[in-house]
Design goal:
seven-stranded mixed beta sheet; four-stranded mixed beta sheet; 15 helices; PyrdxlP-dep_Trfase; PyrdxlP-dep_Trfase_major; S-adenosyl-L-methionine; Adenosylmethionine-8-amino-7-oxononanoate aminotransferase; pyridoxal phosphate
């Protein structure tokens, strides 16, 4: 049968490669024809609540009128122009907004294409800074285990080399310095004992590699794809002091945690420390178009400029794409123009209550909620394919990962819709 004779779904299964799938056994796949608000509509007319915010980015819901209007208006005037030697109002207006809401010390903004690329930019920036200030031997990075920072080459090197998705690439990737994930959970009392809070191990690794390590990179407070693990923010404060002592830069990967998802505008807000570099993506445009940015302070930016070759060696073709900048500005205006804290707090309270019964199930290891993130951790791996098979019946699209059945619902999710999501999660915890 020729490609022209295949149905849409048959063509997809025979020719399109989806993320983290076996092309010979692609698993259940749904054809989406339309989306609006919290719903995606399939080709058979079924409407499913997108409990994943389409991989955590669609925080204002699908096809948000303010964001789509901004994109439409921009499309009629300036869809794209190179950012080399040129600039435009959407990039400048977005930059002003970012400076209003991000940590005060972060004053320089580098626009890029996606979250993974923002991590690449951050690592490149840290290494080039160290080279510029006369420490070219600092080419390596430290990070915590169970982390995830993206699928591009350098980003993969700071994902967990043993339990992460990229372990088979070990030997080809740069060898980095790993410490145990912070052992004190966010809801536990902080221990000042370095042997108990993880800072002793971190100091030992950073001191041993001091002459080689350019930066320490981690996801603040919440490890996402690495296990939906929530740890104590005091670890970040003390890591900041340790990095300062040893001349190591501190990078916060806030791609998943940014823009209110955790209950703070940025997870950085849980601590007093500010990073040297921050990576932002996902919710930046409300999920309507791919975009990300890497922000840094004057010290790093001017350090790079003061060295050889005197310029930052990166420049994506679609850097500062005007459509994406317009979408991002509209998304951030939407977020900050509402009581987002109250909204996220309400989602958290409801999930705490409605997911609590899962604690009594025999195969459940833990139930945890932080902001608009709800997790049922199982004692065994959970099949995403089997969860997908129940989506039609539940009216909810959930995509478990590893041992975790989780949701990051759009902020516009109503209480009734959220109850449908939590009921679906409880059903999966009982049946899978």
């Amino acid at each position: 049968m020729s490609a022209a004779d295949l149905t849409q779904l048959e063509f997809d299964q025979q020719h399109l490669w989806h993320p983290y799938t076996n092309v010979a056994k692609p698993g259940p796949t749904f054809v989406v024809k339309e989306s609006e608000g919290v719903h995606i509509t399939l080709d058979d007319g079924t409407r499913l609540i997108d409990a994943m915010s389409s991989w955590w980015c669609m925080m204002h819901g699908h096809r948000n009128p303010a964001i789509t209007s901004a994109i439409h208006a921009q499309l009629d005037t300036l869809p794209h122009v190179m950012f080399g030697g040129l600039t435009h109002d959407p990039a400048i207006d977005l930059g002003r907004k970012l400076l209003e809401i991000t940590p005060d010390s972060l004053t320089r903004i580098f626009y890029c294409d996606s979250g993974s690329v923002s991590v690449e930019v951050a690592m490149k920036m840290a290494m080039q800074y160290q080279h510029a200030i006369g420490q070219p031997e600092r080419k390596e990075f430290a990070t915590i285990r169970s982390g995830y920072h993206g699928d591009t080459w350098k980003a993969m090197s700071v994902c967990d080399p043993d339990t992460g998705m990229h372990h088979l690439f070990q030997g080809a990737l740069s060898v980095q310095h790993f410490v145990s994930r912070p052992p004190v959970r966010i809801n536990e009392g902080w221990s000042d004992d370095p042997a108990q809070n993880g800072l002793g191990e971190l100091r030992a690794v950073l001191e041993a590699g001091q002459d080689k390590i350019a930066a320490f990179i981690l996801e603040p407070v919440v490890q996402g794809t690495g296990g939906m693990y929530f740890y104590h923010p005091e670890y970040l404060n003390q890591a900041r002091a340790l990095c300062d002592e040893l001349g190591i830069l501190l990078i916060f990967d806030e791609i998943a945690t940014g823009f209110g998802r955790t209950g703070a505008l940025f997870a950085t807000g849980f601590c007093t420390a500010q990073p040297d570099i921050i990576c932002l993506g996902k919710g930046l445009t409300g999920g309507h178009i791919s975009f990300a940015c890497t922000m840094t302070n004057d010290r790093v930016a001017e350090g790079v400029g003061g060295g050889n070759p005197g310029i930052f060696m990166h420049g994506p073709t679609y850097m500062a794409n005007p459509l994406a900048c317009a979408a991002a500005k509209a998304s951030l205006d939407l977020l900050t123009g509402q009581d987002w804290r109250g909204t996220v707090s309400g989602i958290a309270e409801q999930m705490q209550s409605e997911l609590a019964p899962a604690r009594e199930l025999p195969n459940v290891a833990d139930v945890r909620v932080l902001g608009a993130i709800g997790v049922i951790e199982m004692k065994h791996a959970v099949s995403a394919d089997e969860a997908h098979a129940r989506a039609h019946d539940m009216g909810v699209f959930l995509r478990p990962f590893g041992k975790n059945i989780y949701t990051m619902p759009p902020f516009i999710t109503s209480p009734d819709q959220l109850s449908q999501i939590t009921a679906g999660m409880l059903r999966l915890a009982q049946e899978l």
